[in-house]
């Protein structure tokens, strides 16, 4: 087992108290008794899974007799927990609605030696996991025989045993869910089950190539809609499983096509599915916001804008404080008018001779590269020569033009930079009078910035480097021939 790190989240984790002996909490809150003879006069830690991480919940002191107790007048939030001794000794513990129980631990044989009494659900789930470990060992042995076997009879026998084992897996799961419906156990097991693919089309009479492509498309459409069907995102317990956030991230990062227009509607749908509970709504909305901010996918700032408009800037996200709202508003104001797919604003600036120059009027037949820079910027000093080298291949191609926008007001500095870097083939402009409001229409909060507008002056890509621009040009201009 890999080590699990216990973190601290005081704002979300309610403090509990550990006592050596007091019966006043029985049946009213939480009363978990631990017997661990090998841990006399040591601490046992209770960790809680929440939003894909493991947080410290409480500490239980084991007395000189080997006994410890965790008590509270209020129950622990139902979910999956970890009883933790050190980096090599720990075990998961499902805690449901029954929270008056005892745990006996022999640290020399974890988890097989552990005995749980008092909570049927916690005890039965723990026994289920022990059985699961044993079945997984047997399944690995059968798979090894199938993979390496030379005797066809032995391989057939191993496959038959594996089939029986799979049926036993299903039967054990079904029995536990039936015994504890609507419980933490049922929610936990249900969330682990990925829906089985159901084809939307009959492929029998199709040629092989078309059959394969249609099957791939059907499978994608099915899982884009149903991959997370077994999750109840309006139930707080869902977010207290170790796998919930990982599964959401797998859905967003691996199952869906990695383009902003494919991901955004599904991401918004996840937030909407959580709105049956204010806390769940907060958890999901915060997670998707974090995903949008950290995403490296081109155009994902459109998700940030969508979340801001739907939930944060209109007061729906009641938990968000003024600092968070102000930060979101500032970022959204920077990007709202220059989202990928939106119409790029026509900037009116001046060339080196003082003539008015229109961005639209300087456009290439297929692409316009809009390059914002400052000569003193370190990255601008390396990006500009690379951009000049790139354009040497295309300067005679009317399909692509580069408009280089100097963002400051020192004419001599600008002229020297153009000469030094050999930028004469660019359309070089500046706005010393600040009448174009370029910073309002395009996000230039950091430099350099490269935008690419298409033939209709819509923003095709943005915030890219020169190697990416090179790849786009090779692909798009070649396909245009």
Number of folding domains? 4
Major β-sheet annotation: 5 strands, mixed
What's the CATH topology name of the largest domain? Answer: Glutaredoxin
CATH architecture of the largest domain: 3-Layer(aba) Sandwich
Q: Care to describe what's here?
A:
A five-stranded mixed beta sheet has the order 1-5-2-8-9, with helices on one face. Strands 14-13-12-15-16 form a five-stranded mixed beta sheet, with helices on one face. Helices cover 41% and strands 18% of the residues. A hairpin with a 5-residue loop joins strand 10 and strand 11. With 481 residues, it is α+β, with helices and mostly antiparallel strands. The chain contains 13 helices and 16 strands. The chain has helices at residues 120-148, 152-179, 184-192, 208-226, 244-255, 260-273, 278-294, 301-312, 322-335, 378-391, 411-421, 438-441, 466-479, and strands spanning 17-18, 30-35, 43-50, 53-61, 67-72, 79-86, 89-95, 100-104, 115-117, 348-350, 356-358, 367-373, 400-406, 427-430, 449-453, 459-462. It starts with 16 loop residues before the first strand and ends with a helix. It folds into four domains: 17-123, Transthyretin/hydroxyisourate hydrolase domain (Immunoglobulin-like); 128-154 and 164-192, no CATH class; 243-338; 348-479, Glutaredoxin (3-Layer(aba) Sandwich). It comes from Candidatus Enterocola intestinipullorum. Residues 1-20 form the signal peptide. Pfam families: Thioredoxin_8.
Secondary structure topology:
Blueprint: E1 17-18, E2 30-35, E3 43-50, E4 53-61, E5 67-72, E6 79-86, E7 89-95, E8 100-104, E9 115-117, H1 120-148, H2 152-179, H3 184-192, H4 208-226, H5 244-255, H6 260-273, H7 278-294, H8 301-312, H9 322-335, E10 348-350, E11 356-358, E12 367-373, H10 378-391, E13 400-406, H11 411-421, E14 427-430, H12 438-441, E15 449-453, E16 459-462, H13 466-479
Parallel strand pairs: 2-8, 12-13, 13-14
Antiparallel strand pairs: 1-5, 2-5, 3-4, 3-6, 6-7, 8-9, 10-11, 12-15, 15-16
